[in-house]
Structures are given as structure tokens and as C-alpha cells.
TrEMBL record, chains A, B:
Signal peptide interval: none
UniProt organism field: Tissierella creatinophila DSM 6911
Keyword Repressor: no
PROSITE patterns to which the protein is assigned, alphabetical: CNMP_BINDING_3, HTH_CRP_2
GO molecular function: DNA binding; DNA-binding transcription factor activity
GN (gene name): crp_2
Protein name as catalogued: cAMP receptor protein
Lineage top rank: taxon: Bacteria
Keyword list, A-Z: DNA-binding, Receptor, Transcription, Transcription regulation
Residue intervals of the Cyclic nucleotide-binding domain: 28-148
All residue ranges annotated as the HTH crp-type domain in the record: 162-236
Lineage of origin: Bacteria, Bacillati, Bacillota, Tissierellia, Tissierellales
Length: 242, 242
DNA sequence: TTAAAAATGTGACCTGTATCACTGCATAAA
DNA sequence: TTTATGCAGTGATACAGGTCACATTTTTAA
């Protein structure tokens, strides 16, 4: 289901969606002047992707830049045997495809909505052209590139851990860092991924993830509330498992 | 053993080492004008690190930028149990520590010379100051950041492979891509790492690496010549193992 | 509200690879 | 040359976690 609407916040031709993704609200582009914004907005398309819908697939030509306006998506690799390896989970403000300025490339992994997600896409050639002339944007992209390197290295840390306990502990800490919220004394994780996906983000099977989470909650490190909520009870002991 | 000499190529105060690392020869800095080069050269120290010598360690303050002039080094993480995970192998022209422009940080992993290696270091604050004003340098850094993301993602691909065969095949292809040379019809790998390090770059043990390499050579995919040379006999079949 | 589908939990089993312990080889030092 | 030291090869063994099969619970759709 594709839904393209004219933005109802600004009065320019920004191709926003329900106001959420008006390009004047995209942090990456906030330093541009009106001329540049107008120029870019010609190539902007904003739409909602339903949970489970592909945003792009491995091998797709990377000629569009994706900016997450709301919701969450995962970037992952599919194996022949059906397994998958999640690389990144992106939320509001994150963008994909801006690091290869002026370089042709294709997406190496799949992008898929984890929940109903609004995404703006812009023509990469147009974006590149403007970005390369704007030191502010270049620096912002570099800043994000650095974050992404760190993120990928974190994933390597997780995958190279000796045992499943350590992988799960590392995953939880990563998720806390990215999506954790404070509720009173404790830290709460409201997950948008299921056990299978947690496993594939940590490099273990669904079953092992289930067992380890139960084990952690028996140890009093966490408390499981339903399938989509984890309350962290003992951060220090969790860190000891690394 | 520290050896600092004045560059014998250029006549400026560039702090080069045996001429090899004269900062006028560093690709990253090639777009700077003479004023900027002179400015940066104040903070340049070039020295040789002997094989096995640490260049930096986990936790070291990242207040210097490292540029490899000649030789090879590895970036790796040490585990409590003595195992290590290699992240990157860098050679001539590669640099470390330039991605976090104007941001304080510390090195997350160890850097160690794989062979006798000449390295120039420059004061990061001075470099940042100049780099951030030079769009050409910023773009060069971004380009390298993109490579590094790809590199880290490659490593994830390797580590997330199902079985050891696939890990070894991926490692070989990676090494070919980075360091492979053509000799006649076949592609040759002159390694600067031992079996243990190959294992730690692929996410398997030394023994498994040994066994798999022998297995591959029995299959006729490769030919082992001593411990530091591998000749690729059948690239296509190697790729099939992914 | 009910039916169907998807996600999770759980026991039993199996297997690939880590680990250990040792031998042989090659390179460097004495 | 001989001796020492580190690296590589190899067989035996153990076990963590993958895989399978099915029960149970939760979510979604009808």
C-alpha cells in the first residue's frame, strides 16, 4: 500500500507524508538553504512501509537515499539455508545510502520494516550533488559514518564472543544503548523484534536465545514481561558476563 | 627502538623517516597547500615499529593519527582467555584515527606491527583543525570511512557464516582482494600472518585453520607453499564454498 | 468471538569444532 | 654445528549449541 501525500506542515512542495517527514524536519538536511531544499525536494518520495514489507533488497541499485522518519527497520543478510544475520536496526532520523558520495553502488543487504514505518527517499544523484558542495552535510555524514563503523565493530564483538551467554549479554547492552528507556529505577527495553530476530542479531539460534533469556531471568538479571518487554534488573552483573 | 630522522627527500621540516614517509608523500594530505603542510608537520613523528611491537593499546587516548608508510599492522581485540579477534590488517597508505573529527575518543582495540613497519603519527587536534576546513580532505576521509564500513561488514559476513569451510573461503577471498598478486596465470598470496592469526581473522581456531587449508589443497582449490605462501588454483570453486 | 497463523517454550539428540596433548619441523640464537 | 624456541600438523575427546519435533501461548485475521 503506497500512500503519497503533500506535506501539511510546510507550504512548499516537500512531498512530506502526513507532516511527519517534511524535509524541513530531517536533521541531515537542516543546514540547507531554501534553494537547495527546493532543489532536493523535487526528488523526494515519502511513503509508509507496512511491517514485514521490503524497503530494498540485496543487489538493488543504490540510486536512492533512505531516511527513516518514524518506525523501525532492519538491515540483514539472508543465507541460503534460511538463516539471517541482522546488521543494523534503524529508527527515526537514521539514513541509509549516503556514505558512498558520488560512487555507484548497490545495496549489499536487505532492508525490511520491523513495524509500520514512514520513510523518505531522495534521488541520490541530486543529493550527492548538493551534499558534496556543503561542508556541513559532508561532516554530518562523516559523523554518522563513524557511528556506523562503531556499530559494525560492536556486532563483530558480539559474534566473536566465546559463548552464548556473552552474546546475549552484549546484545542486551546494545539494545539498551539504542532503544532503552528509564522507567523509575529500572531500565526497560520495548522490543520491536522477536526471539528469532534477537538471535539473528546476536549470532545464535532462536531456541538458544529463548533459553538464555529465561536463564538470565532466573539469575535475576532481567525480568521478562510478555514477549516484547524486558526489564533490566541488574546492569552490573549483566556487564560481568562480557 | 625509536628512530626519528629528518626527511632526506624534501628540504622542509617534515619529520620523515628515511624519506619513506615524508608527509608530502602521504595521499591523505596531498591536497594541502604548503602553509597547511608546514603547520601539520610540526606535530609529525615518524618511527619504525619492529614486528610484534604494539603501536597502540585498547584504552589509549586517541590523540594521535596514525598513517602506515610501509609494512603491515593488525588491529585486534584481546579476550580474557587469550584468544584474539583481528578486525583489520592495514598496509601502506592506510590511516587510523581520522574518522572521529573533533571528537575525543580512545582506541577500542590493539594495534600491533605484523612486520617491521614505518608509521607516521600526527597530532590529532592539529589535523582535525585543518581537515575540517578542507572539503577535499573531509571527502577523502569519508571515502575511507565507507571502505572501512564495508570492511567491517565483510568481517561480519565471515563470522556469521555457518561453517568453517565458508569462513576460510571468505577469508581467502578477502586476503586476495587486499593483498593478492598475479604471478603468471595464478593468484598468489604472500602472507604476513601465521595460522593462528588467519584463524583469528576468520573466527576459528588455529587447528581448524590448518585442517581446512590442507583440506582445500587436497580438493585442488589452493596450493600451500611453505607457511607464508598460498597459490590459488581454482577461484570459482572457492567462491562456491560461500 | 472464534479460527487460523505465528511466535515461543521445551525436551532429546546430534554434530562440528574447540580444546588438549603431543610430535615434527623450521628458523634463529649460541 | 648444536641448541633452543616458536610455529604447524595431527589424533583423541568433550561439549556447547544447533537442529528437530512437538506442545503451548500469543497474535492476527476473519
Amino acid at each position: 500500500m503506497i500512500s503519497i501525500k503533500t506535506c501539511n506542515i510546510c507550504n512548499s512542495n516537500c512531498q512530506g507524508f502526513d507532516g511527519v517527514s517534511c524535509i524541513h524536519n530531517i536533521p541531515l538536511l537542516s543546514s540547507l538553504n531554501n534553494n537547495e531544499l527546493n532543489d532536493i525536494s523535487q526528488g523526494v518520495v515519502t511513503r509508509e512501509f507496512k511491517k514485514g514489507e521490503y524497503i530494498f533488497k540485496t543487489g538493488d541499485k543504490a540510486d536512492r537515499l533512505y531516511i527513516v522518519c518514524s518506525g523501525k527497520m532492519k538491515i540483514y543478510n539472508s543465507f541460503a539455508d534460511g538463516r539471517e544475520q541482522i546488521f543494523y536496526i534503524y529508527g527515526s532520523g537514521d539514513f541509509i545510502g549516503a556514505f558512498n558520495l558520488l560512487k555507484e553502488d548497490e545495496y549489499k543487504y536487505n532492508g525490511e520494516a520491523l513495524e509500520d514505518t514512514v520513510i523518505s527517499t531522495l534521488t541520490k544523484s541530486k543529493f550527492d550533488e548538493i551534499a558534496i558542495k556543503s561542508p556541513t552535510i559532508t561532516l554530518k555524514i562523516l559523523e554518522k559514518a563513524y557511528e556506523r563503523i562503531r556499530h559494525a565493530e560492536d556486532l563483530v564483538d558480539r559474534l566473536s564472543s566465546t559463548n552464548a551467554n556473552s552474546k546475549v549479554a552484549r546484545l542486551l547492552l546494545k539494545l539498551i544503548q539504542s532503544f532503552g528507556t528509564k522507567e523509575g529505577n529500572s531500565i526497560v527495553l520495548n522490543l520491536s523484534i522477536n526471539r528469532e530476530e534477537m538471535g539473528s542479531y546476536a549470532g545464535i539460534s532462536r531456541e538458544t536465545m529463548t533459553r538464555k533469556l529465561i536463564y538470565f531471568s532466573e539469575l535475576g538479571l532481567i525480568k521478562l514481561e510478555g514477549n516484547k518487554k524486558i526489564i533490566i534488573k541488574n546492569m552490573d552483573k549483566l556487564k560481568e558476563l562480557l
